[in-house]
């Protein structure tokens, strides 16, 4: 979820509160207020501000994530494609890069203005793989071993959806989900999965980690999750 870390205690508190609101999307506004309350009070973990992070918070749904370096990082593209592929960090760096500068909006309420992201358009990797006609969605896996996210194929092909390698004019650090993360500019930040390790074409959307606890699958900023934030588009 978004950008951050949680302790075992903090995570259990949040999941318990989210479970109360998981009956349906109608509970969205109440769920948001519950999460905001927990993140403002949670002991040492959930929602901690990153040192020098300019307002970003650090979350994770697991106790710890082992960092990966350029030497051991890989990204796979598979599923309903004609050509499965595995990319190293160097492979991705050698591809054409796109830069996007937008506000980052978290579903728990905090916002960081004017954040530059740079990376490879997700559509470029999809085109290289050859998407089969029966594919309508994309599932993203992460090397924390727990987190996942999804987009429809149309959403994934947007020009403002990146496989991001750089953030704030430097390589993406581990705490921000590096060395490679997803960046979905017009959606709440939980859609921008950290520690990206796999891109899988699927026949239908598979709800991501937090969507099993009540978050919206289509997470447009200001038009979902019971929130009225100013869009980041």
From TrEMBL:
Question: Which residue windows are transmembrane per the record?
Answer: 12-31
* Cross-referenced Pfam families: Oxidored_molyb
Q: Does the keyword Protein biosynthesis apply?
A: no
Question: What Gene3D superfamilies does this protein's entry cite?
Answer: Oxidoreductase, molybdopterin-binding domain
Highest taxon of source: Bacteria
Per UniProt, the keywords (alphabetical) are: Membrane, Transmembrane, Transmembrane helix
Using the record's annotation, list all stretches that form the Oxidoreductase molybdopterin-binding domain.
67-210
Protein name according to UniProt: Molybdopterin-dependent oxidoreductase
Q: Which organism is it from?
A: Kitasatospora camelliae
Record lineage: Bacteria, Bacillati, Actinomycetota, Actinomycetes, Kitasatosporales
């Amino acid at each position: 979820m978004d950008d951050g870390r949680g302790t075992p205690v903090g995570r259990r508190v949040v999941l318990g509160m989210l479970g109360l609101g998981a009956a349906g999307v109608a509970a969205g506004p109440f769920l948001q207020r519950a999460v905001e309350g927990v993140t403002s009070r949670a002991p040492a973990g959930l929602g901690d501000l990153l040192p020098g992070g300019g307002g970003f918070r650090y979350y994770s749904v697991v106790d710890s994530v082992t960092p990966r370096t350029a030497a051991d990082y890989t990204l796979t593209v598979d599923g309903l494609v004609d050509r499965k592929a595995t990319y190293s960090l160097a492979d991705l760096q050698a591809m054409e890069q796109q830069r996007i500068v937008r506000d980052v909006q978290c579903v728990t309420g905090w916002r960081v203005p004017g954040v530059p992201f740079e990376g490879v358009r997700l559509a470029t990797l999809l085109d290289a793989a050859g998407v089969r006609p029966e594919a309508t969605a994309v599932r993203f896996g992460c090397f924390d071993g727990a987190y996942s996210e999804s987009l429809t194929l149309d959403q994934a092909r947007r020009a403002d959806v990146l496989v991001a390698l750089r953030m704030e004019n430097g390589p993406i650090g581990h705490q921000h989900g590096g060395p490679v993360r997803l960046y979905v500019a017009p959606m709440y930040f939980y859609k921008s999965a950290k520690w990206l390790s796999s891109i899988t074409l699927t026949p239908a959307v598979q709800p991501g980690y937090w969507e099993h606890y009540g978050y919206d699958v289509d997470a447009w900023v200001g038009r979902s999750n019971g929130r009225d934030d100013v869009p980041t588009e």
